[in-house]
Amino acid sequence: xxxPSAEEAAAHAxxxxxxxxxxxxxxxxxxxxxxxxxxxxxxxxxxxxxxxGMILRCLAHGYxxxxxxxxxxxxxxxxxxxxxxxFGDLCAFHTMGEGFTWETQxxxxxxxxxxxxxxxxxxxxxxxxxxxxxxxxxxxxxxxEYLDLQEVVGFLAAEKPxxxxxxxxxxxxxxxxxxxxxxxxxxxxxxxxxxxxxxAQPGVEF
Amino acid sequence: xxxPSAEEAAAHAxxxxxxxxxxxxxxxxxxxxxxxxxxxxxxxxxxxxxxxGMILRCLAHGYxxxxxxxxxxxxxxxxxxxxxxxFGDLCAFHTMGEGFTWETQxxxxxxxxxxxxxxxxxxxxxxxxxxxxxxxxxxxxxxxEYLDLQEVVGFLAAEKPxxxxxxxxxxxxxxxxxxxxxxxxxxxxxxxxxxxxxxAQPGVEF
Lengths: 206, 206
What we know:
Chain A contains eight helices and six strands. Chain A is α/β, with parallel strands linked by helices. The longest helix of chain A has 23 residues, at 6-28.
C-alpha cells in the first residue's frame, strides 16, 4: 500500500481524535462493576467456546471458578481434561449430564441428571469465592423442562452473590431467562461446515 | 417435578429414539476433515473469547497453535499472560497491534503495524505444524484498509495448509472474506451491560 499523504494523515488523525474523545467520555461514565448473568444462545457456533474463553480469562487472573456441564457427559471434551489436569485447584469441573437428550431416551433419567446438576450449580454459585460459574448447556435442560425455569431465575435473583458472574449457554434460551440476564449474545449461523459434509473436529468443536 | 407416567416415559423414549436415528444418519454422512477458515464477526460479545476457547481446545489436544493480535497491543489481556507463561511451548503469541485505531491517530503507523502483523501471520500459517492460527481483530485492519483484502483472501486460498484452521475475528467482516470462509458466526447483541453503565471487567472482557 502507498504511504498516506500529509493531508490524508492529518484528516485521519483529526477523525480518530474525535472518536477517541467521544469514546473516552463514554467509558468514563461506565464505572460500575457487578457480577453478571450472561446468556450465550442462538443456533450458531461459539456459545460454549466463548464461555470457556471467559473461564480461561478467569484462570489467567487467578480467580476461582467452576463449570457444570448439563448435557455433555457422553462426549469427550478436551477443555475438561486440560482444566481438570492443569487448573483443578482453581476451577471445579462437574460433568453431570448424560449426553444429549436424544442419546438417553429416558425422561426420568434426564430429569434426575438435570436436577443433580442444578443442585451442584446452586452449591457452587452460593460459594462467593467463585468469581464465575459456567452452566454449560443448561438452556437445553430448561427448554425440555427437565429443570423448572422459575426456580432457576428466582435463585439467580435471590441468591447469586453480587460479584459472581454466572454464564448460561445453549440454544433456545427461554425468554424469562433473557429478561433476567445482564448480557445476552445470540450466535447466528452465517455458514456452517457440517452443511458441507465436514464432521466435528478436535480443536474446533471439542 | 413429578415423575413421568409410564405413557409419558414411553412417548418420550420413542420420540428421542427417532431423533437419535435421524441424527446418527446425518452424522454418518459427515466424514470430512479439513482445516477451516473460521470467521467470528458481528457487534455482540464473544468473538475473541470464542476464538480463545478454540485455542484452549487445541492446547488441550497438544496441538501447536499461534495467535496474532492485530489491534489489541495497548490493552492488558489476561489470556495473553496465561498462554505465554503456561503454554508458550505450544502456542506462539504475537501482539502486533498498537491498540484500537482511535488510540493511535496515526494512519502510517497503523498501516505499518497491520502490515507487520500480517507478515507474522503468513509465516505462522505457512508453518504446517500449527493446527490453528488465530488472527484476532484482523477484521478491523481489513475494514479500515490497513491491509489489502485481496492479498489476505488470496493468501488463504493459495497458501493455507489443508489441515490448518485459521480463525479471523472482529466486527464488520468484509463480504469477500465471508464468501471465502467455511464457518461464519455472527454475534448479535441482545443485551449489553455497558448500556447499563457497567465497565469492562476482568474475567469477562479481558
